[in-house]
């Protein structure tokens, strides 16, 4: 059974998510539809790329992913199909897919030509373009039938950390805040370890706060499980399951997590100073 996933900034209050699902089922009632999320902040491509990049890898190869974020229709902007890492990804040509695959070269890129004639009417990109293209692929159709191969698509630069050699300091930034209020940076474990090699220690600095240890997981914060509740609310830095430096509060939430207690926002800097 073919799988089509949906990611959007539509939210769940309006009709749009239901319309997309209804259109898929009207074309193929046997497709397995999976929601990744519809709670993307409006037009937020960085947030979308983080979520999709970390989610799609758990799906079988050949899964078709529809990314309806900043996907309003305009004849001057292409809609594209990426074949990458063994699966298909449909989105507007707004740079989103270049953020998802900033370190992976797509196997092929297509401009979706379905419903793209001068007299075609497109009211809603997701139902009128993405869904017919996705169902075509789900039915075993070739991408060349619904699109023409192109050499490149719009590219955006994913914010990367930099290393200041003279000050022996990594300068990174907050790229995502999750549902528990955890603050995720763009500093990877590999970059952290390679730049810090040969140094005795480090200090993580943000706002007026500092941390001097990185845990391997949230639960490593607890040193005595008989007294586990005493560790609730303890601040820590970890490398999360995406191997990115994360600032967290043990057993924190949106209301009392790292975001609210540290006061950091997306785009603010996080520093790692080596000694």
From TrEMBL:
A Pfam family hit: SAM_HAT_C
Q: Which keywords accompany this UniProt record?
A: S-adenosyl-L-methionine
- InterPro entries in the record, alphabetically? SAM_HAT_C, SAM_HAT_N, SAM_OH_AdoTrfase, SAM_OH_AdoTrfase_C_sf, SAM_OH_AdoTrfase_N_sf
**UniProt xrefs under SUPFAM superfamilies:** Bacterial fluorinating enzyme, C-terminal domain, Bacterial fluorinating enzyme, N-terminal domain
For whether the record's keyword set contains S-adenosyl-L-methionine, the answer is yes
Where would I find the S-adenosyl-l-methionine hydroxide adenosyltransferase N-terminal domain in this sequence?
Answer: 4-147
The question of whether S-adenosyl-L-methionine is a record keyword is answered with yes
Domain S-adenosyl-l-methionine hydroxide adenosyltransferase C-terminal stretches: 172-270
Give the family per the record.
Belongs to the SAM hydrolase / SAM-dependent halogenase family.
Q: What is this protein called?
A: S-adenosyl-l-methionine hydroxide adenosyltransferase
**Organism in which the protein naturally occurs:** Chryseobacterium elymi
Q: What is the lineage of its organism?
A: Bacteria, Pseudomonadati, Bacteroidota, Flavobacteriia, Flavobacteriales
